[in-house]
Specification:
Number of domains of chain C: 3
Helix content of chain B: 55-70%
Largest interface: B-C, 38 and 73 residues
Chains: A alpha+beta (298), B mainly alpha (328), C alpha/beta (446)
Strand order of the largest sheet of chain B: 2-3
Shape of chain C: globular
Radius of gyration of chain C: 21 Å
Strand content of chain B: under 5%
Helix content of chain C: 25-40%
CATH topology of the largest domain in chain C: Ubiquitin-like (UB roll)
Radius of gyration of chain B: 21 Å
CATH class of the largest domain in chain C: Alpha Beta
Distance between the termini of chain C: 48 Å
Largest sheet of chain C: 6 strands, mixed
Number of helices of chain B: 15
Oligomer: heterotrimer
Number of strands of chain C: 17
Number of helices of chain C: 14
Chain lengths: 298, 328, 446
C-alpha cells in the first residue's frame, strides 16, 4: 500500500509544481495579440489562397488590424457580408470589390484543335510549356496537364476529359487568382462577373498569324479585326493577331459574336438568340397578328 | 510512320531497369537459403514460408484496395513477396499459423502500408513484423526446432541454438562451450535457428547473385560484417574463454541474413556509399552491443531497426562527393 | 588503364552502326530555312530582305552583342520570306527562308581540296575570320567559338582540349571526320593554339574508335605540342567537365566558374574543322556532318549537309522514315532534342538525326521512388537527383540550390537508370530554371 501512496504523492507533487511553472511562464512570456486579429481569422474562409496578395489568412487579418486603412485590402474569397463584418470589427470602411470570376480563354478541345504529337513527359503544365510548343499546332493554347486544377483550393476548376480543357465552376470560383498564376501560358484571366453572371470574351490567346492559327485550331482567333470594327463601345482591341475584349468597357451587346468568322468569341449565361428562319416567319406573323387582335378586342 | 511523335525531352532511352527486375533478382538470391531451410527444417519451413508470403500478399491487397482505395494495387511488383519470405526467414519453423498471420499483418499494415506503401516506409517491414512477434510471443519465438525433423511442424522437438549457447558462454557457463557446434556445420547450416539464418553458404551464394546482377553494392554487407568481426575479434583477443571466435559471430544468428538481405533494403537504407558504410558500422556496433551486453541473444533485428531510424539523418549528413567542390 | 572521369557515368549501348559509312554529300534542298537563333547568346538579326539574291557564303544575319554569331547562306538563290519556323527547340522561331537556285558561291571562298598548312595571319585576324564565319561549337552546345577563344584575362590557359569523345550512342560524325580529314584537323588545332597563344593541345578520343586513335596518333607524331589521349568508353565522357578531368585530372569548380578557370579551353573536333575552313579557305559555317541513324533505319549514313536543309530530306536519303519510328531526335539519345515534325531545318548544332522505335522511346508509367540510390551512383556531377526532383515538385527552390542543382549538366544519366521510371530530369530542369531566375535577381540587387 505504501509504495502506491508514495508513487501517487510524488508524481502528484511533480505534476503540481510543473503546472505552476507552466502557468507562470505562460503569463510572464505571453505575447500581446490584438484579439481582433483572432476574431477576423475566425470569419475568414481559411483557404490561404493568397488572393489578397498576402501570405495566408493570418497575415491578412493582421494587416487589417495593423494598417491605418483598409485601402487595397480585400479578401476575394469571402462574401461581401464577411468584408462588412471585418469592417465592423476594425471600425474602418471596406472597399467593395467588383465580383470577378476566372475565365479560361481557350477553346482548343480535341475536336477543334487536333493533337499531332504526344507529350509524354512529366505531367505538369509548367514543365510542358518549358520543354515544347505542345502536342498541337497551336503553341499558345492549353496544355491540358491540369496545373490550374491542382492549385485551386475551392474545388472550382476541373478538367473535362472529353475536351481536354479546364472548366470553371462559377458558383465556387472566388476569383482568388492562383489558377491565373499557375497557368504558364496566361490563358486564365479574372474577368468581371457582371449581372446574371454574363460575360463575353475572346476564347483564344494565339498570337500566330491568321493562317497558322487557323491551321492549328478551327476556332482560333485569326486577327481579322471584324469584331473591332463592329463594337460600338471601343471595347475590343487587336494586337499581335489576337483580339481582346476589355471587360470594363464591354456592354454585353453580342454584336461581335455574330461578326466573328471563327466562332472564337464566347458569350456565357445568355439565353440563346432566337433564330427566325423564313419558314418560321410565315407561322409567327399570323399568330402575332391574332394575339394583337385579341388584345384590342378585350 | 507512327501517327504521332513523342515529344518529351531527353533522355530518350533507358537502361531497361525496373522495380520488378530488382525484386525478381532478390527473390532469386533468396532461393538458395529457401532450399537450405527446406532441407534443414522440412515441412515446417515449407508451411511457414508459404503462409507468410500468402498472408503478406493478401494483406497488402486488402489494405490497398479497401482501406487506401488505390485502383492499381501493387502486389505484382514483388516487394510483398520479399517481405513474406524475409519475415518467414526470421521465424522458427514450428511457429503456428495464426502468429504468422499476425506478423504479416503488422509487417505489411504497420511496417509498410501505414506509411503510404512502397518507398515510403522508414523501417524494414519484415523486421517490424518480426520484432512485434518477438515481443508478443517471446516463448514461441525463442524455441527453435532441432534440425532434420522433416515431417514435423508445430510438434517439432526444440533445442538450444548456437547463439543462445554463445550468450551462455559469455555469462561464464563453461559447459555450454562443449555443446557449441563446429564452424563447418554453422557454415553449411545443419544447426538450429530461424529458417533463413542457418545456412551461411546459401546466404553467401545469394550475396554473389545480388552483386552480380547489380542489385546491391558491397558497402552495407561488408561494413556490417567487418565491424562485427573487428569488435568481436577485439573481445575474443581480450578474453578467449568468455568471448568466442569472431567467425562464430559471423556465422550465427541472423547476422549474415541481416547483413545481406535486411539491411540492404533500398527504402530503409542510406543512399550514398559513404552513408551506407556508416550505417553498416552502426549496425555492426549495435549488434555486438546487444549480443554481449543486452538481454536478448540476438541483436541484429533491433540493430537494423535502430539504424533504419537514423537513415534520414545519415542521408542528410553523408552527401556524395560533389564534382568541383573546392576543398576548404 | 585508360583515363576517365571518376564520379558517376553510365554505359548505354554504343550502337555506332554508321561508323563504317563514308561521308556522303547530301543533295541541295529546294528551300533552305535559317532560324536566327542557332547559338547561345542573342539571336542574330537579318541583314537581307525578301527578294534579295544571295550566294553560298553570303552573310544573311548579323550578330547582336558580344556573345552572338553571324549566319551565312548555305545556298544560292532568292530570299523568299522572313517568317517563323518550328525549329529543333520545339518552338516557333523567326527564320530566313531562301529559295534555292543553282549553286553559286561567294568569290572569295577557296573551294579547292588542297591542304593549306601554314597560317601566317595575326592572332587578331584569326579571331576576326572565325567571328565573321559565324563559327559556333558544333558539339551541340553552339557557343560562339571566337568568344571561347578569348577567355577572361585573369585565367591562365595552358591546355587546349579537343573533344573527339563522341560519347553519345549512335553518333559517328566526329569519328568519320577524323578518319577522312585528319590533316585539316591538325591544321585547325594549330590555328586554335596560335589564337590562344599556347603550345599544348590534347585530343580526347573514346576507345571505341581505335582506327581514329591510331590515325590521329600517326598524324600528331609529326607535329609537336599535340597529344592523343584514348579514353575509357563511358557516358558522358564528352561532357566538358568530365573530359577535362579525364585528360588533365583537374576539376572545374561549380558555376559560375568556367573551364578557363582551370586553364583549359575545350573545343569540339567538328568546330576545329570548321575553323580550318574558315581561316584557311575563307569559308563561313554553311555545312556540317550529320549522322542520320536509328536501329530500324535502312541506310544509316553520315551526310555532309548544307545548313537549312529540311530533316525530311535527310531521312529520305537514309532510306525513308522507318515504320516503327515513334520519336525523332536531333542529336543523341541521351541529350538530343525531340522534333515535333520533319519540316525542321538543319542548324549549326544538329550533330545527328536519330529515329527511335516505339519499344525504345516509350516512357513507362512513373512509380514511387524506391530510394535505391542508382541515380546518385549514375550522376557524374555528384548530385542527388531524387532529392532535386522532390525539391522541384515541392517548389523548394532554396533546397535545390543548396544541393548544387546549378551544377547539373542535364546529361540524363539519372533518368536513364531510375528503376521507377521517374522523370527526374524534367523536374530538375524546372528547378534549374527557377533557381536561375532567383540567382539572377539576387545578382542584380547587389
Amino acid at each position: 500500500m505504501l509504495p502506491i501512496l508514495t508513487a501517487i504523492l510524488v508524481l502528484g507533487v511533480i505534476g503540481l509544481i510543473l503546472g505552476i511553472v507552466l502557468y507562470v511562464v505562460a503569463r510572464k512570456f505571453a505575447v500581446d495579440t490584438d484579439p481582433r486579429v483572432e476574431q477576423i481569422i475566425e470569419i475568414l474562409p481559411g483557404a490561404n489562397c493568397g488572393g489578397c496578395g498576402l501570405p495566408g489568412c493570418a497575415a491578412f487579418a493582421e494587416a487589417c488590424v495593423k494598417r491605418d486603412s483598409m485601402e487595397g485590402l480585400n479578401c476575394p474569397a469571402s462574401s461581401s457580408e464577411v468584408m462588412q463584418q471585418i469592417a465592423a470589427i476594425t471600425g474602418r470602411a471596406v472597399q467593395e470589390l467588383t465580383p470577378k470570376v476566372a475565365v479560361v480563354r481557350c477553346n482548343g478541345s480535341c475536336e477543334n484543335r487536333p493533337r499531332v504529337n504526344n507529350y509524354d513527359g512529366a505531367s505538369r503544365c509548367v514543365i510542358a510549356a518549358m520543354q515544347t510548343g505542345g502536342e498541337t499546332g497551336c503553341f499558345y493554347g492549353c496544355l491540358g496537364c491540369g496545373d490550374c486544377v491542382t492549385v485551386c483550393r475551392f474545388d472550382a476548376i476541373h478538367m473535362n476529359p472529353e475536351t481536354g480543357l479546364p472548366e470553371v465552376d462559377q458558383e465556387k470560383c472566388t476569383a482568388c487568382g492562383v489558377c491565373v498564376k499557375a497557368c504558364p501560358r496566361g490563358i486564365i484571366e479574372l474577368r468581371n462577373k457582371n449581372k446574371l453572371d454574363r460575360r463575353i470574351y475572346v476564347s483564344c490567346v494565339n498570337k500566330d498569324k491568321g493562317p497558322v492559327a487557323k491551321k492549328a485550331c478551327a476556332v482560333a482567333c485569326i486577327g481579322c479585326g471584324k469584331c473591332v470594327k463592329v463594337c460600338s463601345f471601343d471595347a475590343i482591341t487587336l494586337e499581335n493577331n489576337l483580339a481582346y475584349i476589355d471587360f470594363e468597357k464591354c456592354r454585353l451587346c453580342r454584336k461581335c459574336i455574330d461578326e466573328c468568322p471563327q466562332n472564337s468569341i464566347w458569350a456565357v449565361n445568355f439565353p440563346p438568340k432566337r433564330v427566325v428562319t423564313p419558314a418560321a416567319e410565315k407561322i409567327i406573323e399570323p399568330v402575332k397578328e391574332s394575339v394583337e387582335q385579341d388584345k384590342q378586342d378585350n | 510512320m507512327a501517327e504521332k511523335l513523342y515529344i518529351s525531352t531527353s533522355p530518350h532511352i533507358h537502361s531497361g531497369d525496373t522495380i520488378e527486375r530488382n525484386m525478381r533478382w532478390v527473390i532469386i538470391a533468396l532461393m538458395p537459403a529457401l532450399v537450405a531451410s527446406f532441407i534443414v527444417f522440412g515441412l515446417g519451413a515449407l508451411i511457414v514460408t508459404a503462409t507468410s508470403v500468402a498472408f503478406c500478399l493478401l494483406f497488402e491487397w486488402l489494405i490497398a484496395k479497401f482501406l487506401l482505395k488505390i485502383k492499381d494495387t501493387t502486389i505484382s511488383d514483388g516487394s510483398a513477396v520479399i517481405t513474406g519470405i524475409l519475415l518467414a526467414f526470421n521465424l522458427p519453423s514450428n511457429i503456428p499459423i495464426y502468429m504468422i498471420a499476425m506478423g504479416a499483418l503488422i509487417a505489411i499494415g504497420v511496417g509498410k502500408m501505414a506509411f503510404g506503401g512502397l518507398g515510403k516506409n522508414p523501417f524494414n517491414p519484415a523486421l517490424v513484423g518480426r520484432v512485434f512477434l518477438l515481443i508478443s510471443f517471446p516463448a514461441a519465438m525463442t524455441s527453435w526446432p532441432v534440425p532434420h525433423q522433416f515431417m514435423a511442424y508445430t510438434d517439432a522437438v526444440t533445442g538450444a541454438t548456437p547463439l543462445s549457447l554463445m550468450s551462455l558462454i559469455a555469462g561464464g557457463d563453461a559447459s555450454a562451450a562443449a555443446q557449441l557446434p563446429g564452424l563447418s556445420s554453422l557454415f553449411l547450416g545443419t544447426t538450429g535457428g530461424c529458417l533463413g539464418e542457418v545456412s551461411v553458404l546459401a546466404l553467401l551464394l545469394g550475396l554473389v547473385i545480388l552483386l552480380w546482377r547489380k542489385v546491391i553494392t558491397w558497402h552495407i554487407p561488408i561494413s556490417i560484417l567487418a565491424t562485427v568481426a573487428v569488435l568481436t575479434g577485439i573481445m575474443w583477443f581480450v578474453n578467449p574463454v568468455l568471448y568466442v571466435n569472431p567467425l562464430y559471430h559471423l556465422c550465427t544468428g541472423g547476422l549474415m541474413l541481416g547483413a545481406i538481405f535486411m539491411a540492404t533494403d533500398y527504402v530503409t537504407s542510406p543512399m550514398t556509399t559513404k552513408g551506407m558504410v556508416w550505417y553498416g558500422i552502426g549496425i555492426g556496433f549495435l549488434t555486438v552491443l546487444i549480443r554481449y551486453f543486452g538481454s536478448y541473444p540476438e541483436g541484429m533485428s533491433f540493430a537494423i531497426l535502430i539504424m533504419n531510424g537514423v537513415t534520414p539523418l545519415i542521408n542528410n549528413w553523408c552527401k556524395p562527393k560533389r564534382f568541383g567542390k573546392i576543398a576548404k | 588503364m585508360l583515363k576517365t572521369f571518376k564520379i558517376g557515368g553510365v554505359h548505354p549501348e554504343p550502337n555506332k552502326i554508321s561508323a563504317g559509312k563514308k561521308i556522303v554529300t547530301a543533295a541541295l534542298p529546294k528551300q533552305a530555312v535559317f532560324p536566327l537563333s542557332q547559338h547561345i547568346g542573342a539571336p542574330a538579326v537579318p541583314c537581307v530582305q525578301r527578294g534579295d539574291t544571295v550566294l553560298v557564303g553570303t552573310r544573311i544575319a548579323d550578330p547582336v552583342g558580344f556573345v552572338s554569331a553571324a549566319i551565312h547562306s548555305s545556298v544560292s538563290g532568292k530570299v523568299a520570306k522572313i517568317d517563323t519556323v518550328v525549329d529543333t527547340s520545339g518552338f516557333r522561331k523567326p527564320a530566313i527562308f531562301i529559295d534555292v537556285e543553282g549553286d553559286k558561291w561567294e568569290s572569295d571562298i577557296d573551294r579547292s581540296d588542297t591542304l593549306i598548312l601554314q597560317c601566317t595571319i595575326s592572332q587578331q585576324e584569326i579571331f576576326d575570320r572565325i567571328k565573321n564565319a559565324g563559327i559556333v561549337g558544333l558539339g551541340g552546345a553552339c557557343f560562339p567559338t571566337h568568344v571561347k577563344l578569348m577567355p577572361p584575362k585573369d585565367c591562365k590557359i595552358d591546355t587546349l582540349i579537343i573533344n573527339a569523345a563522341e560519347c553519345e550512342p549512335f553518333l559517328t560524325a566526329d569519328h568519320r571526320l577524323m578518319l577522312e580529314y585528319p590533316d585539316q584537323i591538325i591544321v585547325g588545332i594549330r590555328i586554335m593554339l596560335k589564337a590562344l597563344g599556347i603550345e599544348y593541345a590534347v585530343i580526347g578520343i573514346e576507345e571505341n574508335k581505335p582506327d581514329a586513335i591510331a590515325l590521329m596518333r600517326a598524324k600528331t607524331s609529326m607535329v609537336s605540342g599535340i597529344e592523343v589521349v584514348p579514353l575509357k568508353m563511358k557516358y558522358p565522357q564528352g561532357g566538358e567537365k568530365q573530359l577535362i578531368e579525364a585528360v588533365t585530372g583537374r576539376r572545374v569548380p561549380p558555376p559560375p566558374a568556367l573551364p578557363a578557370s582551370v586553364g583549359c579551353v575545350v573545343q569540339n573536333i567538328g568546330t576545329v574543322f570548321a575553323v580550318y575552313e574558315a581561316v584557311q579557305k575563307r569559308k563561313p559555317l554553311i555545312e556540317r556532318i550529320v549522322t542520320v541513324t536509328g536501329k530500324s533505319v535502312q541506310n544509316p549514313s553520315n551526310l555532309k549537309v548544307r545548313l537549312g536543309t529540311p530533316i525530311s530530306q535527310l531521312i529520305e536519303a537514309a532510306g525513308g522514315l522507318p515504320e516503327d519510328t515513334s520519336k525523332i531526335v536531333s542529336g543523341g539519345p541521351m541529350m538530343g532534342r525531340p522534333l515535333l515534325g520533319t519540316d525542321v531545318p538543319v542548324v549549326k548544332g544538329t550533330s545527328g538525326i536519330l529515329m527511335i522505335p516505339e519499344s525504345d522511346a516509350v516512357r513507362h508509367k512513373e512509380r514511387t521512388c524506391i530510394r535505391c540510390g542508382k541515380c546518385i551512383t549514375a550522376c557524374p556531377m555528384g548530385l542527388e537527383p531524387y532529392l532535386l526532383a522532390v525539391a522541384s515538385e515541392m517548389e523548394d527552390w532554396e533546397r535545390a540550390e543548396e544541393n548544387w542543382i546549378m551544377s547539373c549538366i542535364e546529361c540524363g544519366c539519372c533518368q536513364s537508370t531510375c528503376p521507377s521510371r521517374r522523370p527526374l530530369l524534367d523536374w530538375v530542369r524546372l528547378a534549374k530554371n527557377r533557381v536561375n531566375d532567383i540567382i539572377r535577381a539576387r545578382n542584380t540587387k547587389i
